[in-house]
DNA sequence: TTCTTATTTGGCAATATCGCCAAATAAGCA
DNA sequence: TGCTTATTTGGCGATATTGCCAAATAAGAA
């Protein structure tokens, strides 16, 4: 793979990889229904706040979400809503895989 | 996060994560233009064939691609074309991030 | 069968990710 | 100022990923 092609795919993969974690995907899903601050997300997720903050930082770094400090809280929201399109496709992969498994079981 | 919700997001994230690697994303992109065997992909990627085979195995395991042996070769193809939708969205994330960077530089 | 090619798998070292605790920073309030 | 809350960051151990080499497996040809 040529270096510039490699770099392009690395940049793309970095963004996709950011969503490739259960907690971060949950965050994206949650933010699709409106902004939330770290506290709220931490409560919904049930992990240490520092862990949630790190996941948020990663999503923000790649440009999927953005943050806005309001007083002592930091609110996050989706920067690019099209990432929600991933969900439907992923569900279809899961569904088809399940169907294939059923066929094998017959 | 409740256990069943956690499991759902874990299953989804696993599929997205499979695409979150430069080589695997390249493979998906390549296969979108038609099937290819391990040899051809290995040549295009420039890594060890064993490495490519492992990437293919992972993509196959999560249901994004499927394989078909024909003689001594194994051909791979996209199982779910909708994964290509990811590319446009990812590009828009990259583009917007670049624009934000430009603004900061002013 | 033996030889050659195509692919996968075992194993391992290097690196990256993850999640927690503790400490640092930021903001608001008394 | 000092106190409290919200968030981020340093650091670390545990785990996962990655890529290579070597060996195993699969298929075809001599």
Structural class of chain A: alpha+beta
Which geometry of chain A do the CA atoms define? globular
Task: Tell how many strands the DSSP assignment of chain A holds.
Answer: 3
- Main sheet properties of chain A: 3 strands, antiparallel
Tally of structural domains of chain A: 1
- The average pLDDT of chain A is 96
Widest sheet of chain A: strand order? Answer: 1-3-2
Give the CA-CA distance, first to last residue of chain A: 42 Å
Give the DSSP E fraction of chain A (strand runs of 2 or more residues). Answer: 5-15%
* CATH class term of chain A: Mainly Alpha
* CATH-assigned homologous superfamily of chain A: Winged helix-like DNA-binding domain superfamily/Winged helix DNA-binding domain
Using the 3D structure, state the CATH architecture of chain A: Orthogonal Bundle
> Quick one: which chains have the greatest interface?
A-B, 45 and 45 residues
CATH fold group of chain A: Arc Repressor Mutant, subunit A
Order of helices and strands of chain A: HHEHHEEH
Unreliably modeled segments of chain A: none
Helix content of chain A: 55-70%
**What is the overall number of helices of chain A?**
5
Regarding quaternary structure, what we see is: homodimer
Rg value of chain A: 17 Å
């Amino acid at each position: 793979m040529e270096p510039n092609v490699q770099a392009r795919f690395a940049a793309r993969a970095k963004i996709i990889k950011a969503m490739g974690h259960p907690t971060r995907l949950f965050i994206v899903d949650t933010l699709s229904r409106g902004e939330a601050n770290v506290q709220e997300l931490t409560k919904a997720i049930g992990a240490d706040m520092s862990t949630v903050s790190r996941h948020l930082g990663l999503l923000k770094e790649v440009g999927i979400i953005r943050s806005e400090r309001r007083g002592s809280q930091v609110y996050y929201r989706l920067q690019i809503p099209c990432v929600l399109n991933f969900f439907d496709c992923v569900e279809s992969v899961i569904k088809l895989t399940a169907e294939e498994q059923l066929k094998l079981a017959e």
